[in-house]
Write a structure and sequence with these properties.
homodimer, alpha/beta, Rossmann fold, Dihydrodipicolinate Reductase, domain 2, Alpha-Beta Plaits, 3 domains, 15 helices, elongated, disordered N terminus, oxidoreductase (chains A, B), EC 1.1.1.3 (chains A, B), NAD(P)-bd_dom_sf (chains A, B), NADP (chains A, B), sodium (chains A, B)
Chain lengths: 451, 451
């Protein structure tokens, strides 16, 4: 862009305006897609100046015709139900996919990439399930594959992981990457409500879908965890590699326990690198609710916001915060990728290709080192603590803190462990449940962030 | 990188290892430079895998020879005092500058860029004072200019602004970009200490330099504000365009006033875009202490951490958080840029060039719309509030809230205004100081973040 644009804030530029347009095919025109269309038209002059040529939408694939979308009339001539036909057109440079799901999205994008078209996608499920198919097709076609919108919506997160941190060694990524569950847990924390009540509120306010399974059972977060782990550790990680525990089991009592510890509960996606028990450099990728101290930067992330906490050897602690969902924020990330892909079309440059050289093994959850907070109702008689402590010792789990509170016959033990293999911790809980002196296990939660 | 690396976490790669090295010249080997050398050697295998070829340091320019640095022996043959000679060598691909200051750094980097060498620099003063010289030289030489480390150290911030947000319209950037002053203000907030006492503590702990002027008077933050504003608004902004007010005037009383309002005080760098009084799209760039509500994400940024809050039309609110200074965190950002530049050397690609098409005018501070918090000691008699309110009205400043507290003859008025041109607010304060019924103006602070 060595040309001389006009002064005074006008981004028009004759030399640039004269360049042929970069032609965009949009697959899907729902909440995100229609915002992409609107913003692309509204900011047309700015985008042209930034790219060096105008962007032009040449086709929009939708499931059903007959409805105006993205401010475009029904008879604009742009809408089609033949997505594959649109992808195959010779006059398409960049394919933008905001449909979601594995098929037929995968077939469309593989076709686009193999034939050298640039792809911008927000499809986390597909990337987590079979990112390899896309990356391989991109390599075959020497094509750009951008997917910033697939994780944490508007937050510029993947480009930093993909590029800025490439001189560093990322050791851990801990994220709140699902707005629905964060809204529910923030509300449980604030009001003392139980899960069902908080979910109901979230549904009424439009934060939760009619079927909230993908969110509350952690499927959505697990897909994002796989994408983040792949980028952070230069290793292909798929959704199948991610241990997943949803947050439907978090009770008002758990939240109260957390509060007593100066903590709150968040549904976290965690991707961690380090040596396993045998000393092998490996990664653990998991999604589960966890207690974190209120002093942790993630604890203050309320409402439906997302945030991702990154720890790297040289950079230290970093956090990225913003809106993780919604049509307009997600469209911001999609448009940023479209600008990058369009610039590359003009210059012949390419995005950094997939970096998967490290091929680190992924540990099963049992071999992940975690910490537990366990809340027990026990008989109030001498020797209880000794018996309980013996169970921990048998499973080689070291206890960090114990708090004992007795009220007549009803006594409570609150135990926080040091880090231990999750399998040992789970076995400890199982053994405790079989002790006669343990009346009930009131709460078991994993702990993160240095409680 | 289509090659097949060995399995098992080993980043060595025969095909890539065979490629000739990308040759790096380092200018400066102090705190940051020696960490760059250390990390570059320590992570050599990983960096080679990520780049596709090894990195090799071919020379290090220092002011004085005779000292081992970065783990390299004195007689390594790498050290030289002739920086310009090093830059001009034919066997240099990437020039990394961590010396700082305007000259001779500018001459070195302009020479490097003009002759097509890639430049990675952490030099905020130079970029803010005369970034144009560097960008123009980069355009002339078709060379890469990367400077992630110049603002907010380890935080990946410039790449997101330079690339990820290019499909969006940034409206405001509000940052805590100076760790020293943030440490001092956080300490004043926590302990009630005055400025001098907190500065002394910061000096003892190594957070403040012997001469803290650049930090506490806001020069450092102003340079960073210019760089952020240039990127956010596609407009060349220099240090001279930035209004700067240091934080040496912030008193323990100011901090107490802020606390009473549910606020804290931070030294903020602010870059804002919007229509001025005449409706002209323009930017305001300023550094000054300001009250922000404790609920604002920036309020919780303690210690010497940095954070930058970005507001964009589509993305909404974003925040980037991390370590803004220190040898190792800054080296992380420098190394990320080295990897990007080195990759480009191999592929022939280039970083996105400077984007300055918008040419927005920069408003003087008087025309910036700000809000004031004013704490007055007044006579306790009827008519005082009416007289005071009259002064605000005369200067066309609208009052948001007034709190009046009288104790015998000593009464206090705490006033927070709505947004108004800063010149009107300053004139209001001047007029108030001349009112007989105003005994003293206890505190005047700008307010940000929706108090």
């Amino acid at each position: 862009m060595n040309s001389e644009p006009a002064r005074g804030g006008k981004p028009q530029n004759e030399k640039e305006g004269d360049k042929p347009a970069v032609r965009v095919a949009l697959l899907g025109c729902g909440t995100v897609g229609s915002e992409v269309v609107r913003l692309l038209h509204e900011q047309s002059a700015d985008l042209t100046a930034r790219i060096g040529a105008p962007l032009e939408i040449v086709g929009i694939a939708v499931r059903r015709l007959g409805r105006a979308r993205g401010g475009l009339p029904v008879d604009s001539g742009l809408f089609t139900t033949d997505a594959l036909g649109l992808v195959k057109r010779d006059d398409v440079d960049v394919v933008v996919e905001v449909v979601g799901g594995i098929e037929p999205a995968r077939s469309w994008l593989v076709e686009a990439l193999r034939t050298g078209k640039s792809v911008v996608t927000a499809n986390k499920a597909l990337l987590a399930e079979d990112g390899a198919a896309l990356h391989d097709a991109a390599a075959d076609g020497n094509a750009d594959l951008y997917y910033e919108a697939s994780v944490a919506g508007a937050i510029p997160l993947l480009r930093p992981l993909r590029e800025s941190l490439h001189g560093d060694r990322v050791t851990k990524v801990t994220g709140i990457v699902n707005g629905t569950t964060n809204f529910i847990l923030s509300s449980m924390d604030a009001t003392g409500a139980g899960f069902s009540e908080a979910l109901e509120e979230a549904t009424e306010l439009g934060y939760a879908e009619a079927d909230p399974t993908a969110d509350v059972e952690g499927f959505d977060a697990a897909a994002k965890a796989a994408i983040l782990a792949s980028l952070a550790f230069h290793t292909r990680v798929t959704a199948a590699d991610v241990f997943r525990e949803g947050m439907t089991g978090v009770t008002a009592g758990d939240m109260a326990s957390a509060k007593e510890m100066g903590c709150t509960i968040k549904l976290l996606c965690i991707a961690e690198r380090g040596p396993d028990e045998a000393g092998v450099d490996s990664v653990s990728v998991r999604v589960h609710p966890a207690m974190i101290p209120r002093s942790h930067p993630l604890a203050g992330v309320g409402d439906a916001f997302n945030a991702v906490f990154v720890e790297a050897e040289a950079a230290g602690q970093l956090m990225f915060y913003g809106r993780g969902a919604g049509g307009t924020p997600t469209a911001s990330a999609v448009l940023g990728d479209i600008v990058a892909a369009a610039r590359n079309r003009l210059t012949g440059f390419r995005a950094p290709s997939e970096s998967n050289y490290a091929h680190l093994p992924v540990r099963p959850i049992g071999a992940a080192v975690t910490r537990y907070h366990i809340n027990l109702d026990v008989d109030d008689k001498p020797g209880v603590l000794a018996a309980v402590a013996g169970v921990f010792a048998k499973h080689e789990v070291s206890i960090a803190t114990v708090r004992q509170s007795g009220r007549e016959e009803d006594a409570k033990l609150v135990i926080v462990t040091h880090g231990a293999p999750d399998a040992n911790l789970a076995a400890t809980v199982e053994s405790l449940s079989q002790l006669d002196i343990v009346r009930s296990i009131a709460s078991v939660l994993r702990v993160e962030g240095g409680v």
